[in-house]
Amino acid sequence: MINSAFYNLEPKKRQRILDTAAKIIAKQGFHKANVNEIAAAAGISVGALYTYFDAKEDIFEAVFMEAVQVTAEVQRKVVAQNESLRDQLLNLFVEGLMMARRRPSYVEIYLNMMAPGMETFADKFSPELETAGAIIYEALLKKGIHTGELRTDLDIRAVAYVLDNTMLALYGSIPNRFFSIHRSVLLQESPGRLTRVWAEGVARRVLLPLWEGIRAPENKLPNNT
Amino acid sequence: MINSAFYNLEPKKRQRILDTAAKIIAKQGFHKANVNEIAAAAGISVGALYTYFDAKEDIFEAVFMEAVQVTAEVQRKVVAQNESLRDQLLNLFVEGLMMARRRPSYVEIYLNMMAPGMETFADKFSPELETAGAIIYEALLKKGIHTGELRTDLDIRAVAYVLDNTMLALYGSIPNRFFSIHRSVLLQESPGRLTRVWAEGVARRVLLPLWEGIRAPENKLPNNT
Amino acid sequence: MINSAFYNLEPKKRQRILDTAAKIIAKQGFHKANVNEIAAAAGISVGALYTYFDAKEDIFEAVFMEAVQVTAEVQRKVVAQNESLRDQLLNLFVEGLMMARRRPSYVEIYLNMMAPGMETFADKFSPELETAGAIIYEALLKKGIHTGELRTDLDIRAVAYVLDNTMLALYGSIPNRFFSIHRSVLLQESPGRLTRVWAEGVARRVLLPLWEGIRAPENKLPNNT
Amino acid sequence: MINSAFYNLEPKKRQRILDTAAKIIAKQGFHKANVNEIAAAAGISVGALYTYFDAKEDIFEAVFMEAVQVTAEVQRKVVAQNESLRDQLLNLFVEGLMMARRRPSYVEIYLNMMAPGMETFADKFSPELETAGAIIYEALLKKGIHTGELRTDLDIRAVAYVLDNTMLALYGSIPNRFFSIHRSVLLQESPGRLTRVWAEGVARRVLLPLWEGIRAPENKLPNNT
DNA sequence: CATGAATGAGGATTCATTCAT
DNA sequence: CATGAATGAATCCTCATTCAT
Questions:
Q1: Which of D132, D169, D138 has the alpha carbon at shortest distance from D155?
Q2: Do residue C169 and residue D168 have CB atoms under 8 angstroms apart?
Q3: CB under 8 Å to D69, separation ≥6 — which residues?
């Protein structure tokens, strides 16, 4: 259990604990991560840590829920924008990459959920979490159909699935070695810094082929905007 | 190090060791997996295991290399087929799913590489592995352009990236809880058995939107073949 | 040390603390018992508990002294009765059992003193405590000799020893699992509630053989009064 | 669980582990006793200890079962003797005291079972153990009735109960502080060494009053044999 | 080469006690 | 005096690795 004591902590301290735990779990993975090390790095005692959390698992849960917040914020921000669907999708990529730059550990935490040996967590969190994500994609794409930006015969779920997996891999490529190599090799990128300009470039590259397949035919624009 | 003793083992025994290790690491993840348990389950002594492998890490490496073989076989098989690119891509999905059904543990091993705390392995294996994958995609897609199936203005790498991530998630959804929930929620699937027919259906759903974006314009066919 | 603050507490609160501590120590044993849990269950803060007691050991001592009071009260009550020695001995059993029913935890506390690892406490309390007990038995039995109820050639100490051990086991059988099983198996009792009638029956059964050995010969009565 | 590895140990080593564990648990009590300390004192590693036993509880069980053996041996020995019942009862006391001198720790282990917080163990072992004890007493006393040594109207169970509790306290008085003080104060003993002669004296003192109450009337002998 | 008992450092968790408020 | 959050040494148990047989 995550105890109320944790929520009653002064926000700064609570955030420091979350960030520290996220960083260490992100680096080592849940099972390798060391509780005593987390406490020490967060500048508190193990005892204190265990007044906040009943078990190591609960530390992960708290960190994961923070990761969910961090991700959800990106979605909320983009959904709230009054732009074309295409730009919103691009922004989902770009803002996600920016978020990954700011909070790389939390992206790794997210990735940790899909690791073998994390079934319990996946069972506990994924169903409602993914459902929430699905709803957002659905709303977004339906809107695109209504506004005439998208083809009317789309399999919305399939599109959402492809989009989401691409984002997962792209966000993950910021903090995670595997996804990072995967991306730079497959996209044959020349090494460069993680700037917004770069993010916009990648987003366009990656979205374009799919976009061509889902946009409404009359919407034909020059391929490279 | 993976010692020569391991390669000199009778193939059946070697395979049993790999499969057992794969199964256990797949279930628990590398860091949680227990070497003694692997030895016991494989019907050999820990001592023997340690004459084959210098360290736990090396067991993972051997298992991972087997996972690479398993995956590569799917690609080789599909690439060798003399079919249209579209069917080859569909087959990449379908055969991959079939492979995941046959060897679910090895798919999890693959997923284990992208878990936090596995950087060392990613550094060691990913670069050449991903390069090999990239080459296959490149060849496949270039061929598609030459045969006129694909648009000539494609960003091949980007298409490969999207395709590969989708496959990763789809294959992973067979053994892995997170990806399984992710898929069934996003694709809004009704529960069903993992049959070839089902796999073909999913493959079509998932490939279609992207295919529409990459196929050559004159190639216009009814959406559902 | 048990601080004066504890004795200055309003009696109700003091009693509540003692009873709570007794209950928890009775259930878990001194070493397993948890100070924080005691404080919480008693409705006070650990801090407060530690202003009353300097250490966990002191909590036990306070509780033990209360247990002594509880036991002594039974003895005082029975000794004050103006009955035959035989009835007084029977009453010692019966009233002790009744006391054990009312305050089972305190009987366990008493038992806790004879557990391994409690030497320090035994050294501190047992000598004078047992001496006090011995005096009571001595007075009682001497009186029995004087009134002609008992044989004149008795080894009073030995009789007291046997009596006291039997009482210990009998009282202990109320709250304590071991002694409870021990009693019901050896006495081959059919399960039943702890009523005064039952207590009187057990008391008679258990006292009789010894009574036959210590009563004055001319006192011969039918076995079952 | 007590693993087979433990039973396959060379007897000398196995005994050393049992004796060491018994000694430490006897001194500190189960809950205070330290597993690492036991391992160190036994000259083995914690790891080894945990290949023999799955948990600390199992160490206690093994030690307790040894304690049962030790006690049972005394009973078997005495029961096998072809003596009068009176001498057999005296020998039960004497041999028990001798056993307690030889293996004091195991007597404490036995006492540990009746400590608060040991319910689980009592539940697991006491029922059949006490039943076995009850059978022995029953056989012994029935034989005494048949041979005419004992009164025919005895409540055998009650006699057994009184006898057993007295023995418990007497055996316990060898290693245990509480029972030791209890005995020496109540019996008003002058300090002395634990010799067989002393044991015989105590046995006679303690048995006599009860014996007078249970022996057959025609059996009247001078009080102090 | 194979075995599997043994090792012991490492890690999650507990809890008696303190002390700033 | 009371509070209860914080401390961190202590403890049970695990497991990668070794090595005598």
A1: D138
A2: yes
A3: none
The CA distance from C166 to D163, in Å, is 9
d(CA B77, CA B91): 9
CA distance B107 to B95: 13
The partner residue sitting opposite C186, judged by closest CB among D118, D157, D188, is D157
Helix (H, G, I), strand (E, B) or coil at D89: helix
Computed on alpha carbons and rounded to an integer, the radius of gyration of chain B in Å comes to: 19
Can you read off the two tokens belonging to residue D104?
A: 């004091």
User: Which has the closest alpha carbon to A112: A45, A197, A225, A22?
Assistant: A22
Q: Distance from A89 to chain B by nearest Cα, in Å?
A: 15
Q: Which of B118, B130, B172 sits opposite A186 (nearest CB)?
A: B130
Residue B53, beta-bridge partner list: B2
Three-class DSSP labels, B92-160: HHHHHHHHHHHCHHHHHHHHHCCCCCCHHHHHHHHHHHHHHHHHHHHHHHHHHHHCCCECCCCCHHHHH
Q: Do chains D and C touch (3 or more CB pairs under 8 A)?
A: yes
Element (H, E) at D19: helix D11-28
The per-residue pLDDT for range B19-65, each reduced to its tens digit, is: 999 999 999 999 999 999 999 999 999 999 999 999 999 999 999 99
* Pairwise CB contact (< 8 Å): A119 & B177: yes
Burial label for C81, CB within 10 Å (0-12, 13-18, 19+), is: exposed
pLDDT in tens, chain B (225 residues): 999 999 999 999 999 999 999 999 999 999 999 999 999 999 999 999 999 999 999 999 999 999 999 999 999 999 999 999 999 999 999 999 999 999 999 999 999 999 999 999 999 999 999 999 999 999 999 999 999 999 999 999 999 999 999 999 999 999 999 999 999 999 999 888 899 999 999 999 999 999 999 999 864 454 544
Q: Which of B131, B141, B134, B129 is nearest to B89 (CA)?
A: B141
Phi, psi at C175, each rounded to 5°? -95, -20
Structure tokens at D154: 């005895």
pLDDT at A192: 83
Instruction: Tokens 């079952």: give the residue.
Output: C224
pLDDT tens, C146-185?
A: 999 999 999 999 999 999 999 999 999 999 999 999 999 9
Neighbours of C73 (CB within 10 A): 13
Written as six digits, the tokens of D159 are 């006699």
**Which residue's C-alpha is at the least distance from the C1' of F5?**
A48
Among B178, B214, B221, the residue to mutate for chain A (most A Cβ within 10 A) = B178
Which residues, in sequence order, are CB contacts of C195 under 8 Å at separation 6+?
none
| Token pair of D152 as six digits | 């025919």
